[in-house]
Amino acid sequence: MLKTIPRMRAEAAKDVFELIGNTPLLRFRKLAAPFAPVEIYAKAEWYNPGGSVKDRPAREIILTAEREGQLRPGKVILDATSGNMGIAYAMLGAARGYRVTLCIPANASPERLRILRAYGAELILTDPLEGTDGAILEARRRYEAEPERYFYADQYNNPANWRAHYRTTGPEIWEQTEGRITHFVAGLGTSGTMMGVGRYLKERNPAIRLIGVQPDGPFHGLEGLKHMETAIRPGIYDPDLLDEIVPISTEEAYAMARRLAREEGLFVGISAGAAMAAALKIAARLREGVVVTIFPDAGYKYLSENFWFEAGT
Predict the structure, then answer these.
(1) What's the domain range around 111?
(2) Which contiguous run of DSSP H or E holds residue 173?
(3) In this structure, are 22 and 61 located in the same domain?
(4) Which whole number is the average pLDDT over 225-238?
């Protein structure tokens, strides 16, 4: 019997920082049925107050910067984002009283842009053809021009990113599976989730397999994920930690997101579709095992995408 981590606490939370983490682990029955007795699970990261897994590293980055004196009143939080990390910064910055400036591709979903503006973030829209790499370069340019104005959070190179998952996500998965996990599957964007969870799990059991998920080419529609061979590689990314990388096409991810909504009752985002597609590919090879993946967010921030309503689906 798998353990669940309770969401409710007896005492009142002081702020949104205390609401992050301790997300449920969901077991799949229908989609996993062809692969029994292999078990497949996913962490439901939309339970975080900002609606995504990115709340975890954003909190760690902000708290670490405050402790180290890099972030103090009057400083503006600056970073590049594809959306979810920006939402986390904007939410936590508002709670702490910091202004937030975000460089984000202009083709980010309208829902994400509206949420960011609702939190009061300043948005610098970058060339959509350059993806998150263009946003990264613009954030660097702005920081270099005014280093005294900004705290450059630099999620792609900040070790506090992966440490957040080492400290929280990894231990949660280990506890929730009672140490039975055999395979961990996660999308590669900043790579913070995989680097942190992977290091923690390998310390607990070196036999656990770590599988990264990335787009199958440089031109793709998987927001938040990077094709590592052609993109600016995050400084926190260590490919040697991984046992394998599974490429997923945009079409596979879209189709799986639809299946999750219509067969499992889970309305999740595109990167969650990619993660589940990869998890099923891993499960298909196994005779037994416990496969755990991450569902970074829900589908509400992608409602404007036409793939939800394609004919015959």
Answers:
(1) 55-152
(2) helix 170-176
(3) no
(4) 94
- pLDDT given for residue 224 in this prediction: 85
Q: Is 249 a catalytic residue?
A: no
Catalytic residue chosen out of the listed positions 54, 82, 109, 226: 54
101 is in an annotated binding site: no
Residues 200 and 240 grouped into a single domain: yes
Q: Decide which of 128, 152, 176 is a domain's last residue.
A: 152
82 in a known ligand binding site: no
Annotated binding residue at 193? yes
134 is known to lie in a ligand binding site: no
Query: Are 176 and 41 contained in the same domain?
Result: yes
- The two beta strands, 122-126 and 150-152, are unpaired
Name the band, by pLDDT with cuts 50, 70 and 90, for residue 306: confident
What CATH number is attached to the domain comprising 89? Answer: 3.40.50.1100
Token duo for residue 189: 């964007």
- The more confident residue out of 3 and 202 is 202
Give the residue among 55, 235, 76 at the shortest CA–CA distance from 154. 235
Task: Kindly report the number of other CB atoms within 10 A of residue 84's CB atom.
Answer: 28
pLDDT band of residue 221 (cuts 50, 70, 90) is: confident
Q: What is the distance between the alpha carbons of residues 268 and 306, in angstroms, rounded to a whole number?
A: 15
Structure tokens at 284: 């298909």
pTM: predicted TM-score of the whole model, two decimal places: 0.94
Q: Would you place residue 7 in the very low, low, confident or very high pLDDT band (cuts 50, 70, 90)?
A: low
| 25-28 contacts, C-beta under 8 A, 24 or more apart | 25/172, 25/173, 25/176, 25/177, 25/292, 26/266, 26/295, 27/2, 28/264
> Both 178 and 104 in a single domain?
no
Q: What DSSP line would sit under 203-244, residue for residue? A: HH-TT-EEEEEEESSSS---TT---TTTSPPPTT--GGG-SE
Q: Which of 82, 109, 271, 301 is the catalytic position? A: 271
